[in-house]
Amino acid sequence: MTKYETTFILEPGLDEARVNETVDKVLGWIKDLGGEVLDVQRWGKRRLAYEIQKKRDGIYTMILHQGEGVLVKEIERRMSLHDSVIRVLTVVHAPESLVVVDPDAVAAEEAGDE
Question: Is 0.70 surpassed by the pTM of this model?
Answer without folding.
Answer: yes
